[in-house]
Amino acid sequence: MPSTDPSRALVSRWQDVWLLAGVRTPFVDYTQAFATVSPIDLGIKAAREVLARSGASAADVGTVIASCMAQTSFDAYLLPRHVGFYAGVPTEVPAHLVQRVCGSGIEIISQAADTLALGRASLALCVGTESMSRNPIAAYTHRSGFRLGTPVEFKDFLWEAMQDPAVDTNMGGTAENLARRYDIRRPEVDAYAARSFERAVEAQASGFLGGEICPVKNETFEVKGLRPRGIKLNGKEPFVERDTHVRPTTLETLARIRPAFGGVQTGGNSSAIVDGAASALIASGDYLKRHKTTPLARVVAAVAVGVPAEVMGIGPVASIRTLLSATGLKLAEIDRIEINEAFGAQVIACVRELGIDESKLNVNGGAIAIGHPLGASGVRLAVTLARDLQRSGLRYGIASACIGGGQGIAMLLERV
Question: At 355, phi and psi to the nearest 5?
Fold first, then answer.
């Protein structure tokens, strides 16, 4: 693994911070049912649902922390504020937006935990949301108009945003770099992807994934004093209630897909491009006592750390190692591990470097099968992890992700 200085990592530890509840929308293949829906409205839906399911009052929320990467509507600046407004959070409660690329969802939970530990609030509403479908075709150089003969520079933001000009490669290229360094071959990557699909299909069929999903239908959000807004699905389906990319997918099918970046990565063994939102309520111990409520898990610690940009996918290794060191735990004591499946080769590299027991890893499938809506994925990872610890009666779990530009993030949860 490329060297990184763990002393430069951002490390947070908490004694009395809790994941009270979590929920998400279905993750829907891009350009499909959610294609025309603003990520703000997806976030509002997830926020309303987590409050309803938990029984917590929106009036108790002391801060709203949201994550979303792409500006996919003209009111994007107002995303966290509008999520709070239409979820019923009091006007006086502040809200802010977080950007740590693929780690943003874990970051907003971490920031909420810091806020509660400092006594600034007792309940935080965290919402990660993303519309990959609404990523714009954009131009940044035409504010002064078009001159005769000058190239017109409209480009696909969804594609161009994958490029890291500092190291002159795209995100897929960073996975190919890891494949070369760790001698990871195409059949291994396809086999890993096939297993992700198989596990997700099983988790969907058993109802486990459905337990964290709120069905989405055409709906209007009305709040006194505000203009109505809402969700109108694309197409004729009246509602969506399950992840749409999860499907039986054989190794033979994956093997027929052509490489996307000139090596081992394809559209089949990389994270699926989807739209969706996820939300979580983070509560202080005092809030739980006052309201006599039982949380999903304790939020124990989190780490964010930098790694070389050209192998950004190795980020979970550095963050997980630092997290274990900070908490005094050994990897063998971790019962469940979620690593966001940005790319199959990237996860395999992390598995090899850390020596992960794969029977503990992404046991309900990962982003290859379920999808990776950038700002929402980290919240999904944490909620899925907490729910699986509860179901399995296990104690410790780690949710982690690599981050474009060269970072890793990891969070330790403990079952109540």
Answer: 75, 45
Q: How many CA atoms lie within 13 A of 356 on its CB side?
A: 26
Alpha-carbon gap, residue 415 to 397, rounded angstroms = 8
Question: Active-site residue 402, yes or no?
Answer: yes
pLDDT at residue 150, rounded to an integer: 85
Query: How distant is the alpha carbon of residue 273 from its chain centre?
Result: 12
CA distances from 245 to 122, 204, 248, 383 (A): 37, 11, 10, 19
Distance CA 395, CA 405 (A): 33
pLDDT digits (tens, 9 = 90+) for 197-210: 999 999 999 999 99
Q: What is the pLDDT of residue 3?
A: 59
Of the listed ranges 6-15, 56-65, 79-88, 357-366, the one predicted with least confidence: 6-15
Tell me if residue 350 is catalytic: no
Pairing of strands 229-231, 219-221: antiparallel
Domain residue spans of the chain? 12-136+209-241+270-291
Per-residue pLDDT, 359: 98
Mean pLDDT of the chain, nearest integer? 97
DSSP 65: E
DSSP string, 339-374: E--SBHHHHHHHHHHHT--GGGBSTT--HHHH---H
Q: Cα(314)–Cα(1) distance, rounded to whole angstroms? A: 8
Residue 147: which pLDDT band, with cuts at 50, 70 and 90? confident
Residue the block writes with tokens 């890793």: 408
Assigned CATH topology for domain 12-136+209-241+270-291? Peroxisomal Thiolase; Chain A, domain 1 (3.40.47)
Strand 216-217 relative to strand 239-240, pairing: antiparallel
Active-site position among 126, 214, 350, 402: 402
> Strand 163-164 vs strand 169-170: parallel, antiparallel, or unpaired?
antiparallel
Choose, from 68, 102, 126, 214, the residue flagged as catalytic: 102
**Alpha carbons 282 and 105: distance in angstroms, whole number:** 13
Do 352 and 182 touch, CB atoms closer than 8 A? yes
Q: Is the pTM of this model over 0.90?
A: yes
Average pLDDT over residues 63-70: 98
Whole-angstrom distance, CA of residue 315 vs CA of residue 309: 9
